[in-house]
Amino acid sequence: MHPVLDDLITLLQLERIEDNIFRGESRDIGSAQVFGGQVLGQALSAAQHTVDGRVAHSLHAYFLRRGDMQAPIVYEVDRARDGGSFSNRRVVAIQHGRPILNLAASFQNPEQGVQHQARMPDVPGPDDCRDIFETEWDQLQKMPEVMRRHMADKRAFEIRPAPQDGRDHMPRKNVWLRTVDKLPAGLALHQNLLAYASDYELLGVSTLPHDLPFGTGSVIMASLDHALWFHRPMQIDEWLLYSMDSPNASGARGYARGQFFSRDGELIASTAQEGLVRVVTGVAGKRSDPKLQD
Fold this sequence. Notes:
The chain has one domain (3-109, 125-279): Acyl-CoA thioesterase, double hotdog domain (Porin), CATH 2.40.160.210. Strand 11 and strand 12 (267-279) form a beta hairpin. A twelve-stranded antiparallel β-sheet has the order 1-2-4-5-6-3-9-12-11-10-8-7, covered by helices on one side. Helix 2 (36-48) runs antiparallel to helix 6 (187-198). The protein is 18% helix and 36% strand. By secondary structure, it is α+β, with helices and mostly antiparallel strands.
């Protein structure tokens, strides 16, 4: 297996300290704090370790503090409920004696029921899209050098943005992604990696309509909460379309939502996030229209 992907899988598996207590390490991806997707994936993994025979169908999390990459993260799991069909777990991620994330996850016995779903956006397939480093170089240049180097050389995911529809600066984005190598079987692992990837670029979609002064140190962005619903089994080592949009930005917060589709159009998962988008100095650019229309 690709060594970077193998390392990420190991990172998400956690060390069991006691029945309901787990410990995880972090990896530096070039940001000033632990990547939020890593904490989401590890917290979900901790919850999964305490559930037998049931599949995660949703999680809801609040990011409370920035994670310290130099310190381990301890995950405490509360086995809140095991009912006839559903199990609920509460997870607290702790560093330096203080919580950095609260997460609630729900698990269900697999069963059949009525079905319908949203339609996948009509975008070019992954074979007709180019790698992010070929299509978004100007955006990547705004990242810190160490983060840019990590994305270029130490990626666990292939990322191919779909071309925009010509209406520039609208708050939407479509990205194809998959792991850089094949994965072992097991839905729990694929869900953990999807949780990790669901934090990728989601909040950034809420900034697309605005001329924010990135690269000047005057824009502060941080995830505040994150929700994820798993609708159907999937494989994240196959191409998934991550379709994101942002219905609102206000009050120094951006709100964004996303949908994951399989290549053949099945809706796999849905996600939503709100985060801090604060301009410390200066004024957002002329496209900061509070009521953007399609």
